[in-house]
Amino acid sequence: MSKTILVTGGAGYIGSHTLIELHNAGYDFIVVDNLVNSQKESLYRVAKIIGRNIPFYEVDIRDAVAMDEILTLHPVDACIHFAGLKAVGESVSKPLEYYSNNMTGTFVLVEQLRKHGCKNLIFSSSATVYGNPAQIPITENCPKGQCTNPYGQTKSMLEEVLTDIQKADPQWNIVLLRYFNPIGAHPSGQIGENPNGIPNNLMPYITQVAVGKRPELGIFGNDYDTHDGTGVRDFIHVVDLARGHVSALSAIERGCGLAIYNLGTGQGYSVLDLVKTFERVNRVPIPYRILDRRPGDIATCYSNPSKAFEELGWKAQYGIEEMCRDAWNWQKNNPNGYEQADY
Ligand code: NAD
Ligand code: WQD
To answer: DSSP characters for 20-84?
Structure first.
C-alpha cells in the first residue's frame, strides 16, 4: 500500500513541484495550505499534470483543532513541511508575523503529528542558516552563522527546536533540508514561481523583465570579490529540489534519526552569469542597471552537495541552461502567473 504524506504549504512554489515528484514516486498525499502566498490554481494545474484529484484543506497550520481533524481523517506516514513565510525583507518589517507563522506553525504541526503517531518530518531549511559562510563550498559541517533577518532566524531556531525534539525522542526521524537558490519551473510550463508584487528574488525579477512587466533588472552591486563583481549563488532547478524530498523520504523510511542535507548543485554562478545565460538560451534581452549592494547580501554562497549524493543517492540533474529555459517557459505562457486560470 502506498504511503501518505502530509504536505504543508503544498500550493506554493516548491510544494507544488514536489507533489508531482511524490506522485511519480508512487506516494499519496494530502495538502494543507492557507493560501497566504499561493493560489488554489496551482493545485488544479498539478492535478491536471498528474491526472488525479488532490485532497486539499485550506487551513492555517496554527489551527490545532483543524489540524487534529485533518489528521484524524487522514492518517499520514510522514510530513513534508513547506508552510512558512519566506520574504527576507518583509520579515524585517513584520518580525512578529514571521515568528508567529513560522515558529508557532511548526510547533502546532509537530504536536499534532506526535499526537497522531507520525514522527517523520522533512523540514524546509535554507542555506541562510550558514550566514556569511565560514567555508566555500559549504558542507553541512560548516558552522551556522549569524542570520541578519527574522526569516533566517526562524529557520535557524527551528532547526535547533527540531534537533532537540529528535534528541529527546529518538523515534522521530527528522530531515533538515538546506536549500540553496531554487529557480526554474516544471518543464510543462504549467506551474512555477508566482510572487506577489515586486519580486524579491533574482530569477522572477529577470522573467518579469523578459516578459515586459518591468523595464529593467537592478543588479545589487558589482564590486564583490567574485569573478565579475556580482554575487555568486548555487542556483538549483526546482524539479531537482523537489526530487530531493522524495530521496529524503527514503532516508526516513530507513530510520535516519536526525539528518541534515544541503540541496544544491555545487556550482556557483554569478548574477551576470545567470542574466547572460538567460538571454542566450531564450533569445530575450534583459536590460539591467548596476545598483548599490543590497543590505544583508553576501558575496558568495554555494554548496558541497556530496553528502546528499553519498547518503541519499540524490544529485541535481539539471543545469543552469535548463533552469533559464524552464523559468522562461513558465513566465511567457503565464505572464500574470496563476491569475489567468484556463478552466
Ligand atoms: P511559497 O511561499 O511559495 O510556499 C509556502 C506555502 O506555505 C504557501 O503556499 C503559503 O500559502 C503556505 N503557508 C504559509 N504559512 C502558512 C500557514 N501558517 N498555514 C498554512 N500554509 C501556510 O514558498 P516556497 O518558495 O515554496 O518555499 C517553501 C519553503 O521552503 C518555505 O518554508 C521557505 O521558507 C523554504 N525555502 C524557500 C527558499 C526559496 O528560495 N524559495 C529557499 C530556502 C528555503
Ligand atoms: C540572488 C542574487 C542578489 C534580486 C534568498 C534568501 C535565502 C533563500 C533564497 C529562503 C544576490 C542578486 C537579486 C535583484 C539582484 N530563501 N539580486 N537583483 O539573497 O541569495 O537568497 O533566497 O530561504 O534565504 O536570502 O537570493 O534571488 O534574492 O538573490 O541583483 O532584483 O541576486 O543581490 O546576489 P538570495 P536572491
So the answer is: HHHHHTT-EEEEE---TT--HHHHHHHHHHHTS---EE---TT-HHHHHHHHHHS--SEEEE--S
- pLDDT per residue as tens digits for the range 21-63: 999 999 999 999 999 999 999 999 999 999 999 999 999 999 9
pLDDT at residue 339 greater than cutoff 90: no
DSSP string, 238-264: HHHHHHHHHHHHHHHHTT--EEEEEES
247-260 residue pLDDT tens: 999 999 999 999 99
Here the cell at position 261 is 542535507
Pairing of strands 217-220, 288-291: parallel
Catalytic residue among 27, 57, 130, 151: 151
DSSP label at residue 261: E
The three-state secondary structure class of 45 is helix
192-201: average pLDDT = 95
91 in contact with ligand 1, CB cutoff 6 A = no
Query: Grid coordinates standing for 208?
Result: 518579469
Q: What is the pTM of this model?
A: 0.98
Identify residue 296 by its one-letter amino acid code. Answer: G
Alpha-carbon gap, residue 291 to 280, rounded angstroms: 23
How close is the Cα of 33 to the center of ligand 1, in Å? 9
Contact call for residues 134 and 142 (beta carbons, < 8 A): yes
Select from 181, 183, 263 the residue to mutate for testing ligand 2; criterion: most ligand atoms less than 8 Å from CB. Answer: 181
Q: Above 90 in pLDDT, residue 341?
A: no
Give the model's pLDDT for residue 340.
52
Single-letter amino acid code for the residue at 98 = Y
**Cα separation of 163 and 172, whole Å?**
10
**Ligand 2 pocket, residue 201 CB under 6 Å:** yes
Beta pairing partners, 175: 122, 259
pLDDT for 6-20, tens place per residue? Answer: 999 999 999 999 999
- Among this protein's residues, is 151 annotated catalytic? yes
